[in-house]
Amino acid sequence: MSRIADPEKKKALCARLARIEGQLRGLQKLIETDSDCEKIAQQMAASRKALDKAFFSMVGCMIEQGDQSAEHVAEMLTKFA
């Protein structure tokens, strides 16, 4: 099992997730206010991409820490990416 050890990277990842959380709240408001579906889809795509970026940032931390084998990281990428 691997954890993010660097406090600065952990803080940056949490900040990124907080921004994504804000994006998702904005999406809910767009839906509640009957906004155009294309605008909603655009914001969904942006949120999904931001979440993917957070995921790959976390994987990068795992690789930098070196506490997981390359095979394990590859399996995780195959499974979740």
Task: Determine the fraction of residues in helical runs and give it as a percent range.
Answer: over 70%
- Radius of gyration computed on alpha carbons: 16 Å
Number of beta-strand segments: 0
Assembly status = single chain
Give the N-terminus to C-terminus distance in angstroms: 18 Å
Global morphology: elongated
Task: Tell me the series of helices and strands, N- to C-terminal.
Answer: HHH
Number of helices: 3
Chain-averaged pLDDT: 94
The secondary-structure class comes to mainly alpha
Low-confidence stretches: none
Beta-strand content estimate: under 5%
Structure description:
The chain is mainly α and 81 residues long. Helices cover 81% and strands 0% of the residues. The chain has helices at residues 7-32, 37-65, 70-80. α1 (7-32) packs antiparallel against α2. The protein is elongated, with a radius of gyration of 16 Å. 0% of the residues are buried.
Kindly summarize this structure in a few lines.
This protein is mainly alpha-helical. It is built from three helices and no strands.
What keyword list fits this structure?
single chain, 81 residues, mainly alpha, 3 helices, 0% strand
Outline the secondary-structure elements:
Elements: H1 7-32, H2 37-65, H3 70-80
Helix pairs in contact: 1-2
